[in-house]
Design a protein that fits this description.
CATH architecture: Alpha-Beta Barrel
Number of helices: 14
Number of domains: 1
Radius of gyration: 20 Å
Distance between the termini: 31 Å
Bound molecules: ligand G3I
Oligomer: single chain
Order of helices and strands: HHHEHHEHHEEHEHHEHEEHEHEH
CATH superfamily: Glycosidases
Helix content: 25-40%
Number of strands: 10
Length: 388
């Protein structure tokens, strides 16, 4: 096993405080760095030769990054160093959701996402936003009988305030997250969320228009799960999402990209194949980019307890998926949902849903001690196999 010290190329990351730079100029800065046309300052020195996922991705036309729980970056310098070494972009896993940002109607708490943005900028990295609208993050106060009738205005005010707060400084926003749930029986397969019920189906369009008006620079993304496999269920979700996207475009709703969450399973009857490839191609033909936004591998169903055998199965899952997904040039961005097994969300939640409740998952490219695993090399090699 490679130790982290042997692996790390940069040693202690020099936190060179950079002047605040808009997201667009940071992207241009990265392009310049990777082309290696001049002596490069700071710890990013030899980016093209670095053994980081971000360098391998960038050389093949991809932005690589990770979601992080902001507190972990604040509290753990070694983890912060890993993130700065491996990523071009970061996204806070939950600190930009309504429940975290809006403890009370008259209170916005930007402290944690602001910290992450400052961290990203001091390392000349990008940040994206997740998410302005999600059925699973609706504060209790907005659901009170007094506030409920004002949901539409509160929704507009929230998106406007949050997008303006970060205007010009974020790469992209997941504007609407997980709006499709066919089981809810609504027209177009729309999920019967709080937003849907209070505002109506046009809440989606309203969210995108409001976000664009408040921040014309961020790439606006629709993000969803359950589209990765060649199963009937995923096929239905893909066709409903495409139908929704076409409708948005017909109505001139501002939209730049579609997020495929990419929460994969190590043991799965269905394959990654034509369904996924055709979906990505359909999005490309609509003139939209594709972002793989929450990549990880749930390995709860693997029967063996042997870590090396499990790691090999997990790595193969990443490889099989990325072979299909990265074949299309519309895919511009890959983010894992955290970088280290120490923090994966797959270890949280009710253990009765788990087949192996006492076995911590090895889902991500780095282990609990921040050492690269087979999954790291699967990602790296998948990036390298991509045509330039
Ligand atoms: O930060 C607080 C901490 O201060 C507090 O001490 C602790 C006590 O429980 O909670 C911490 O916040 C938790 C946060 O994760 C960070 O660990 C929240 O309670 C917890 O609800 C939150 O869960 C997140 C979940 O979304 C709900 O927001 C997960 O980290 C995050 O991985 C998950 O992400 C979702 C995507 O948004 C959408 N797609 C699915 C994905 C996985 O469920």
């Amino acid at each position: 096993m490679i130790t982290r010290r042997q692996f790390t190329r940069f040693g202690a990351a020099a936190a060179v405080a950079a002047a605040v730079q808009p997201a667009d100029s940071l992207l241009a800065d990265w392009t310049h760095r990777i082309q290696g046309s001049s002596a490069l300052p700071g710890s990013f020195g030899d980016v093209a030769g670095a053994r980081s996922l971000r360098a391998h991705a960038w050389r093949h036309g991809l932005i690589f990054g990770s979601a992080v729980i902001v507190r972990n970056v604040e509290d753990d310098p070694e983890f912060a160093e890993l993130i700065a070494e491996q990523c071009v972009i970061v996204v806070p896993t939950s600190e930009l959701k309504w429940v975290a940002l809006r403890p009370a109607p008259d209170k916005y708490d930007f402290s944690r996402p602001d910290f992450l943005l400052a961290f990203a900028q001091s390392h000349r990295m990008l940040m994206r936003g997740h998410t302005l609208c999600w059925h699973n993050s609706v504060p209790e106060w907005i659901q009170s009988p007094a506030n409920r009738p004002h949901t539409r205005q509160i929704f507009i005010d929230h998106i406007t305030t949050v997008c303006k707060h970060y205007a010009g400084r974020l790469h992209s926003w997941d504007v609407v997250n997980e709006a499709i749930l066919p089981a809810d029986g609504q027209p177009g397969g729309l999920r019967k969320s709080f937003w849907y019920e209070q505002i109506g189906p046009d809440y989606i369009e309203l969210a995108f228009r409001t976000a664009r008006a408040a921040d014309p620079h961020a790439r606006l993304t629709y993000n969803d799960y359950g589209v990765e496999y060649d199963s009937e269920e995923d096929a239905e979700r893909r066709s409903l999402i495409l139908e929704m996207l076409r409708k948005l475009q017909k109505n001139n709703v501002p939209l730049d990209a579609v997020g495929i969450q990419s929460h994969l399973k190590a043991v799965q009857h269905y394959a990654f194949g034509k369904g996924l490839a055709d979906y990505i191609e359909a999005i490309r033909q609509m003139g939209l980019d594709v972002y793989l936004t929450e990549l990880d591998v749930n390995e709860d169903d693997i029967a063996t307890n042997d870590p090396a055998e499990r790691d090999a199965i997990i790595a193969r899952t990443y490889t099989d998926y990325l072979r299909v997904a990265l074949a299309n040039r519309a895919v511009k961005l890959v983010l894992t949902w955290d970088l280290s097994d120490r923090f994966t969300w797959l270890n949280n939640g009710p253990t009765h849903h788990r087949k192996q409740p006492n076995r911590p998952q090895r889902s991500l490219p780095f282990d609990r001690n921040y050492r690269p695993k087979q999954a790291f090399f699967a990602l790296r090699d998948s990036f390298d196999r991509r045509r330039r």
